[in-house]
Structure formats: structure tokens, C-alpha cells
Predict the 3D structure of the following.
Amino acid sequence: MHTCYIDGSCLGTPGPGGWAVVVLGDEGDPAYISGSRNHTTNNAMELTAAIEALKNVPRGSTIEIVTDSKLVIGWLSKSWKVNHLHIARLIADYHKTRQSCDVKVTLRWTKGHTTDQWNNLVDGMARLEAQTLRHTLCQTGAC
């Protein structure tokens, strides 16, 4: 069993964004994965983190994805209505990746910005990715 904490961050909507995942498993040390994208949204970054979580556990794993986004849980497990094509594409990518990686997933909500150390960590990692991208873009005159 692996537990994957995920989060996304965006500086503006759309704007530079970051995503982060911490994978906790029985094998030992946590794995830290993060990245960034320009011209994105917070929800897109949350979904990207969920997809990356699937890609970073062994094939055939059972995982629990922990997020502070009730919206992401609704989209991924309850077929909530989606109003934006880019979000619908990410949801489809999530389900395709889950199937191709043969991963069994449960989703769990945690309250953000409280005492959950792993949620706070991925929040900070995602925000740092977005801030670093914004800084890089501004250095090149693209902000």
C-alpha cells in the first residue's frame, strides 16, 4: 500500500503553476516528485499531481491519494460535472493512466493548511514550483 499526498498551486488564473506529490510506502524513505507548467490553473495542477502519483508507484499497486481538494475527489470518483475542456482532458488522462498502470485507487480528503504535515509539505512544494517558474519567466521578460 502506498499513500500519495498531492497538491497543486497557481499564481493567477491562468498563470504559472506547480504540482507536487509525496509517495509514502513500505519500502522506506518518501519519494518527492514535483513540476511546473505555465498558463495553467490550480485545478489543472491538482489533477496533474494525481496523474503523476499514479505514474510513480509500482505497477499493480494499491494506493490512497490524499488531497485537500473536494472538487478533484468529486471529478475523479463521483463523475461531477466539468465545465472546462482542459479539465475534462486531465480527468480522462487520469483514468487512462490508472488503467494502464493497473493501479487501484482510493481518494481521501484532508483539510488543507492545518496540522497534516504531508499536506502542508506538498502545498509548499507546489507553491515553490509555481514561484520558481514565475521567477524564471520574469527573468526572461515573459511575465
